[in-house]
Amino acid sequence: MPLIAAALAVLLGLGWLGGGYVWAGPLAKEGAFIVPDGASLSAVAAKLEKEGAISSAGAFKLRARIFGLGKTIKAGEFRLPAHASMRRILSVIASDDILRRFMTVPEGLPSVMIYEKLMTNKDLTGTIEVPAEGSILPDTYEIAKGESRQAVLLRMQAPMQRTLAELWEKRDGKCPVLTMEQALVLASIVEKETGKPSERAMVAGLYCNRLRSGMMLQADPTIIYPITKGKPLGRRIRQSEISSVNDYNTYSMLGLPKGPITNPGRESIAAVLHPATTDALFMVADGTGGHAFAATYEQHNRNVEKWYLIRKDRGDF
């Protein structure tokens, strides 16, 4: 009897698994569904559930992985039939039957990684050189199958020039950047220094204060850029790298680096051209993904001590 019960349980499980895979889904009418560029299976499943195409993101992920289709989904816009089953949905979003294709450039992605992203996209043709750092505006761009990589790259670069010129005309003059290129360079540092959108103007204000007072910027990402071209360092910065003299390291030079260290987004450029009014000259991580700011070295040292204790409690050392 235990063997029979176990066999029945297995059969029921297989029935649920297979049936749920081919049964009609809850989508009331035919509609478009967009798979974002770089989206994971979990993100796509959650989006399908939110848009009413499936009843359970968890069940969808399970079946996709069991039937070996979890890694075959493609970015783009697809047409989903009404009441499409999970099998039909997976078949559609893993096919070349794409209505529109997209490529996303996240804020703060360095040019060498955008180059790699373009070169590995199998929908595109031709070759390109690594684009100039800071020449691409982070955004989601539509691409066409068979389109040249050079054409896509030019379409990514044109908005940066327009955006920079537009924002420069509206600058408030509080930051001592004298040219659009200087604003772009400082915006690239702001982009890399904070992951909190709400902090951008404050970080920009701090660096504008340092420029105005003749202090070194001492921005860690400028140490890393000459080493990796903006890719993650993957380890702590060495003392020899902090003291290294080059055209980017703001720990060994006054003023701005010779060029951008990444491709900053519109909001980081706007932050530099409209920085927060602050007396802050120092900042250190605060353990929340943001920073603690200070106007004096004494206050900064207290913030550093707090950060040291946070890291010690986390077991960083």
What report would you give on this structure?
With about 325 residues, this protein is mainly α. The protein contains twelve helices and six strands. The strands form three sheets. The chain has a two-stranded antiparallel ribbon. The protein has a two-stranded antiparallel ribbon with strand order 3-4. Helix 2 (about 40-50) crosses helix 3, helix 7 (about 180-195) packs across helix 8 (about 200-215) and helix 8 packs across helix 11. The radius of gyration is 25 Å and the shape is globular. Mean pLDDT is about 90; it is low at about 5-20.
Features:
single chain, 317 residues, mainly alpha, two-stranded antiparallel ribbon, 12 helices
Order of strands, widest sheet: 1-2
Shape: globular
Spatial separation of the terminal alpha carbons: 57 Å
Q: Structural class, please? A: mainly alpha
How would a crystallographer describe the biggest sheet? 2 strands, antiparallel
Helical element count?
12
Strand content: 5-15%
- Helical fraction: 40-55%
- The tally of beta strands, per DSSP, is 6
Unreliable stretches: 5-19
Report the mean per-residue pLDDT as an integer.
Answer: 90
Question: What are the secondary-structure elements, in order, as H or E?
Answer: HEHHEHEHEHHHHHHEEH
Cα gyration radius (Å): 25 Å
Topology (SSEs and partners):
Blueprint: H1 2-22, E1 31-35, H2 41-50, H3 57-66, E2 76-80, H4 86-93, E3 101-104, H5 111-119, E4 140-143, H6 149-169, H7 180-193, H8 200-213, H9 220-228, H10 239-242, H11 266-273, E5 282-285, E6 291-294, H12 297-314
Antiparallel strand pairs: 1-2, 3-4, 5-6
